[in-house]
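Lecture 7, part 2: worked example. A protein chain together with 3-phosphoglyceric acid.
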Amino acid sequence: MKVLVATEKPFAKQAVDGIRKIIEDAGLELVLLEKYKEQADFVKAVADVDAVIIRSDIASREVLEAGKNLKIVVRAGAGYDNIDLDAASERKVVAMNTPGQNANAVAELAFGMMLFQVRNHYDGSSGFELKGKTLGLHAYGFVGKCVGRIAKGFGMDVYAYDPFLTPAMIEVDGVKAVESVEELYSKCQYISLHIPATKDTKGSINFNLLSKMPQGATLVNTARKEVIDEASLIKVFEERKDFRYVSDIAPDNAPIIGEKFPGRFYFTAKKMGAQTEEANINAGLAAARQIVGFLQKGDKTFQVNKF
Ligand code: 3PG
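Predicted complex, written out as structure tokens:
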């Protein structure tokens, strides 16, 4: 049986070596498709494989239908909004993610971007410190928890909102739980987004929420650009001179922001929250193990679709 690793943004070499070992030790064959240029290359490569490991690569209906032998697709990472789950379920293809495996890398980048912004892009001018500032974690999953842990080291006052957790599950970590998303935005100068991109969350970070933030508002996005209502973003930038936005991947209206609000934003050139050797190894090897566990023992832990 064949396992395809389809990564437009390749894993670090050590991760690929580890994935290969797990796959080959299990008697499976590894097929590598890295840095591909066209979605058609992915569609072609999936034709005769049994399993696929992807990152932010698009496992579209076309891909899932082209994989005639496909039994499982594993997103080596957290967000699986790049997998067409309906198409996967219709084709009886198991879809999985590898929750938590790249969380620390993403959390460290959130701080890297925050520091870069509060120190004025290291231009030599006087900036601000994070110590003593309020930080709101919008969702308290694996990444939110890591950001909270680091924030406490910086001496920040950390709050979190997560509709899927009880206050006790948040407060056990020394993080203050708030009752509503509005309360989180009203209390916190810094908001770090850790919500997935779903039909309910897309466009949900809007003017109503952002305008509630106290003076010195900075929005930190290591989640997905789609959760932001971009018209609201522009409006907040226009109405609040104190507002800053740092994001791991540029919004669609980045050219407008770049032109109108210089110095008040930072966007990575390419999504790079999980782009560390450690995260690649953690998530890549977990994906390979999950594929072996499923193909050889039927283990469906971490399945995210139903059929
Ligand atoms: C995730 O959802 O795990 C992150 O966005 C990482 O995406 P990447 O694997 O494309 O870097």
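The mean pLDDT is 98. The longest strand covers residues 2-7. Keep this in mind for problem set question 3.
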